[in-house]
Amino acid sequence: MGITNDRKGAIKKLKLLSYQPKQTVDSFRRTLEAEFKTIFLPNRVECHEVKHATVTCDILSPEIYASNRVLIYIHGGCFVAGSRASYRSFCSSLASKAFSRVIVPEFRLSPAYPCPAAIEDIQTVFRAVYTEEQVACSLNAEEGKTKTPEIIIAADGSGASLACALILNLRDRYRSCIKHLILFSPWLDVSPTSRILTAKKANDEILNADVIRQSASDYTYAANTSSPSVSPLLATDEQLQNFPPTFIQMGEKEILLDDAKAFTKRLIANGNKCTLDVWPDMMFMFQMADEYLHVSHLAMDKVGTVITEYFAGLEKIQIENQPKLEHSLHSEA
Question: What is the C-alpha separation between 328 and 55, in angstroms, rounded?
């Protein structure tokens, strides 16, 4: 691919995803946007904007996508930063790999809008997408056959907390429509009892305990960080019943890895499918440093394979070309 592996360059870029204690919220947001926002999208992905109630969203559509598949992406940013614009390039790559439309909500951020504002916005988007997809399934269903929407939820970092909060608060009939949960380097426990926050020294090349502590403090009050809606690792066994099939991808060098291992073990113990995909010698969100690391492309290829093979195992999917999007329900939303 012509990519020269540059670990130092990757780390320098990815550190900008980390909300440092000396930064203000505004300076962190500006820095993140300046590095990750781009005008040009890869692989001829097209972007258009829709609004679900008060929440503005990007819809990213690759040239070829499965008409009965949609992915909702919940971005990270330490609860206080990140946007549709800063994640547009990464989510466009994901859309191409997964042959899927990707919806990226512009949810409210803390500290101006603390928990549960972001969760409420994501719930609003999910309900709207669910309704649209249900209507589409009804219109396209063969006589005598009923279909349900095929929705994927994906998230990274602090967005994983929001994604799990969405699932934990859904009724079974909605939860059953989430066919896969994809988590990149998830934040799963920001409570005072977290292994990361109680360790004498917890840090990796990108994150440290102070980053997580400050982010959690800006997101919600201390007592609420032990809620499963904030720290999903602390969910009860009952809450983890009928959880969607989950795929977690992260680097071997992350301080978050032990929590991911514990979460994987708990999901499996409660009868769910969960795969933890750990990449040797990699760091937090290495997938977003694809101009520096060849392995980033390989990791995203694997995520695309996980999604497409799963759906191929369910039934034959209908493929649509991008120009048909202008006639779809989503262009009218």
Answer: 20
How do 101-105 and 55-61 pair as beta strands? antiparallel
| Residue 175 burial class via C-beta count within 10 angstroms: exposed 0-12, middle 13-18, buried 19 and up | middle
297/318 Cα distance (integer angstroms): 26
Strand blocks (E) in 55-139: 55-61, 64-66, 70-74, 101-105
CB 161 within 8 A of CB 190: yes
Which residue in 67, 63, 50 sits closest to 103, CA to CA? 50
42 alpha carbon, distance to own chain's centre:
19
**pTM to 2 decimals?**
0.92
Instruction: Tell the residue number behind the tokens 């990274």, with chain if given.
Output: 156
Could you give the angle at which helices 158-168 and 117-140 cross, rounded to 10 degrees? 60
Strand order in the sheet with 70-74: 46-52, 55-61, 101-105, 70-74, 151-156, 178-184, 246-251, 274-279
Closest CA to 181 of 272, 85, 119, 261: 272
Cβ–Cβ < 8 Å for 152, 98: yes
Grouped pLDDT means (10 residues each) for the chain, 333 residues:
78 97 96 94 94 96 92 98 98 97 98 98 96 83 66 98 97 91 98 94 94 97 98 98 97 98 98 98 98 97 93 52 36 32
CA 108 to chain centre: 16
